[in-house]
């Protein structure tokens, strides 16, 4: 049959019609793409990468070292050339075997831990095999070159390593259609529909974020706040311009006299602790017989640019504590702070100590930093060039837009949170998964400009809270003023608030009663770890005078969740049993059912559906 035969399905009227429709769709999507990119708001260039002087200093240091030792450079080059020749020879061998009909073999070690290269074609196809092996060779060469750079300070070297690694991840062959066998196979299988759907996904993501490329991680249509996530019953019993205070309904006939007031981070929404009934810390706490209040923070817009940490303390922490005390008719509460809210809880405790206010009976910290002397993986983002860019962004917009924070956190795990999802969505044309955790992760919040700069300059960069003191509300606040009984829950693989850094901060607190726990897993999974799952254990050690490594060596491993251990600790500080309390009272009537209104406000200022 010739290609001109009218019965050839490739030239059938139906096929031609599909091609025409595909081209029309591409044309329409291209126009939408151009329109949204034309309306994109600009942001400071320094937020896209470091000052170019960093690379210039690194290159100068590298070539200076090589000039002193040219034999070393030659050795590296010969090694690289040799490996490239080996890669080509392997590809030739695979090609010869496939032409001889012997079938292809895996002639090089596979990368089972690298999920990017699981398609068999990376091993069996000469083209893809060579591309993969050469990419891995190049990646190793770049990382080795960075490791061998001398005569630059430790911070610059860590930054150089981070940005070099980002280049390595970005240039992976899986990120390009012509070198991604999964995407190519899907395109052939679907007659190009996967690519059109992928372009639709790309345009939709750009339109949803004012021209900024923020990869959608979850199918947002699968979730509704208050319907299938954040469903624990309760009432908003107080509201001001900073927050809504939710009091959850009791599930026991009696409760402990001392209530709990929980402060979640305002970088994200509080319902990470109430995603669904099976893993809801909020629900679990009420089931243990406690009166629980949880703060739901305002999602700021440009009009809130002047809100500072003092506003979060005064109108957030202190207002919530006073409201809880009034409703429960008690003089003290047990406070909990998660992440940045734990950092701010420690500031609040120092302030109350200096004021002689004993409203907080005990404090629990979830993955909360107070000592920022080691900036860890955030080192690249806490230097002046990047922070100056954030300050410029704030000057222009009044706040730190949520996508900048989301992008920063995502690129710390770029394969999992950027490139992998982008490939599935834009190349494969797949709908993002219906995953509640990823839905929450994409439901970010803006940060008021003033508060963001106080936090970044005073706490993160200058580490004032543990050095000379952090000036706030007419007081000089210091970590040593945290003197109430404290329990700190940290997470073993947390890359945001590393457990060793949290440990160092707890050590400097002035409390004579300190309990420190290291839970298995990371920043979220280590905290959201219900006892029923029995998935992750935790480490304990009562000796907090030793350094972090010694503490870990002497720690006891405990099977199961840390939640019951925390509840046992909390019970001793929560007073007698009293009749269960319904939300609110005559002075604080319920305003709206949980989860309230503030949590529904999206970062762009629109209410969620």
UniProtKB/TrEMBL annotation:
Q: Does the keyword Membrane apply?
A: no
Q: What Gene Ontology molecular-function terms does this entry list?
A: acyltransferase activity
CC terms in the record's Gene Ontology section: cytoplasm
Segments for region (Disordered) = 573-609
Q: Could you tell me which NCBIfam families the record lists for this protein?
A: PHA_synth_I
Query: In Gene Ontology terms, what is a biological process of this protein?
Result: poly-hydroxybutyrate biosynthetic process
Domain Poly-beta-hydroxybutyrate polymerase N-terminal, chain residue ranges per copy: 114-285
Cross-referenced InterPro entries, in alphabetical order? Answer: AB_hydrolase_fold, PHA/PHB_synthase, PHA_synth_I, PhaC_N
User: Where's it found, cell-wise?
Assistant: Cytoplasm
Keyword entries, A-Z: Acyltransferase, Cytoplasm, Transferase
Protein name, as recorded: Poly(3-hydroxyalkanoate) polymerase PhaC
Per the record, the gene is phaC
Keyword Cytoplasm belongs to the record: yes
Q: Which top class of enzyme applies to this chain?
A: transferase
The EC number(s) given in the record are: 2.3.1.-
